[in-house]
Amino acid sequence: MTLQNKSNYQAAEIKVLEGLEPVRKRPGMYIGSTDAKGLHHLSKEILDNAVDEALAGYGKIIQLFRSQVGEAEQALAKKNIKLGEEAITVVDNGRGIPVDMHESGVSALEVVMTKLHAGGKFENTAYQASGGLHGVGSSAVNALSALLQVVVKRNKKYYYQLYHQGFPKFSVKTIKQEEVISLFPDSSVDFIKYETGSLIKFVPDDIIFSTTQFGHKTLVSIIKDRAYLMAGIYFQFNDLIEKKHQHFYFESGIRSLVEHINMTRKPIHQVVYISDDWQDEVTKKRIGIEIALQYNDSYIEKLESFVNVIHTSDGGTHVNGFRMALGKVVRDYAEAHNLIKEKETFSAEDLKEGLAAVVFVKMPSNDLQFESQTKTRLNNSEAQSAVYQVLKEGFTTFLEENPDAGRAIISKIMLTARARMAARAAKDAVIRKGLFEGSSLPGKLADCQSRDPAESEVYIVEGDSAGGSAKQGRDRKFQAIFPLRGKILNTERARLDKVVAFEELKNLVIALGAGIGDTFKPEKLRYHRIILMNDADVDGEHITTLGLTFFFRHLPEIVKQGYLYVAMPPLFKVTVGKEVEYAYSEEERETVTQSALIKQPNAKVSLQRYKGLGEMNPEQLWDTTMNPKTRILKRITIEDADKADTIFSTLMGDDVPPRKKFIQTHAKLANLDI
User: Fold this and answer.
1) Which of 43-57, 118-132, 234-248 has the lowest mean pLDDT?
2) Which H helix or E strand runs over 361?
3) Is 462 in the active site?
4) Distance CA 120, CA 114 (A)
């Protein structure tokens, strides 16, 4: 690279990105990414426009359609534009996007769909509260779509416009109802019955996105979130690809969401619901606050926060206000009613255990301040004051009117505080011995030679027999073996103090080297492949599930980073003549056998069913389960944390009826080896 022309930097070298060009040039700035997450962000933006109408008091029905791109869309597209695989259509019965002439000289509809920072969300006269920000939602989706169509129903007329990669193909025009039905045969069935409304159908641009296939479960989650927030609004999801039709309507709003969160847990009191408007004394701006909370008997916190219809997954000022008020009210109530023993105290962390809560803030859209366009963290300082004041007053009143609930909550929090102190004492005792610092590893650990975590892996196996074979069969350079003695503690219902006190788990934590709980330091993790290797039978599956529960509940960062795996040992050794192959299921055994007999029709066939890893000699274990070139490993990921949380609570919790129901429901999906 040469710097000789640097002094000749001229105006001609300045690139001005006009219209929607900045969005296509830097899509990540507007939707976060161009992977599946960014793809689904498009559907959120269009859906939220419909929700904003409902939030403003207009329209009660919102429909979302997922469909395959077909000949109809191809016929509308330019020849040089490659369409994605799927399309999303959103229909609502709101007022309909304005279509009258804008001061810029084109229809207001075209302005909304093609101009950044344009929309009805800057002036409080249009939307007191909305999910849109900066007016880039619809236009950003339009820019990143190969094809987008809009139909607006107003004044008993249908107004239509078509766009290619953000550019209108023609000016807004009126079309007949028959044309609407022809263009949108599935999604217009109810739309044509509405007095007013909007229909938007978009096909993501295959050039922009790494995938153009929407996920059914992800769309359900997006819609359900909004249905919980918008009490009394009817949502419908029509997946025309998977042929599934689902309806969502929650009369109780966020109270229903808290009840859903606690579905697999035991609440210790009724749901607390607080709703009020807060007004800034100086600016006179109003903020609507809704809060629902309920403590349960678990050890996990589940707090969801929203601003208008936006899920703020990273929290923000409204969550800060919630936590501050919760601590203040609980502390004042406990002290006023002598519910805390002398010299006892609790921390902010103790307030989290077993808490299920939803914080929902409704603010004027032109005042919203987020860290980025993806809107995962709220920055408005007034939201903190609003939530703090409303929760402080409302929750104080609730506790005074419901003393039994107050005592149950304080008892739960203090029990958590005592367990935390016990866990700290147990961890301190271990640290004093220097074990967590790695100066003395457990004697049962057969460590590897490598000290590079990226290339090191540890097999966690049950039993001395399997452990012995694994130690002999491994590659000592990068493979470590950690044998467990029997089934480990079910940590679904165990606090950290019990986990640390359990000898097998304590030694495992020491072997991993990164600590646990608030002492966990990911940079100290000694292995980047942590592999659960157990027998391929019912007992082995149970031990694997116990291991998964431990990591999910107490070392979740290991799972999130993709460091946790499950080994897949074979079920059968198939010998045909002198050829030996391994099969990992009943079906594969049949396939392997038939294939071998075709090659050697007269050969003798012998079959060995492995009942456990201990039956394999070291060479077999290496060939089938430990050799990186031939083994099968399943990486454990959490694509849907909420669903995983529910399943673990159901299967590993104390309540038998939910577990029995789950097993009966999913019995046909089980892989039973009889």
Assistant:
1) 118-132
2) strand 355-362
3) yes
4) 14
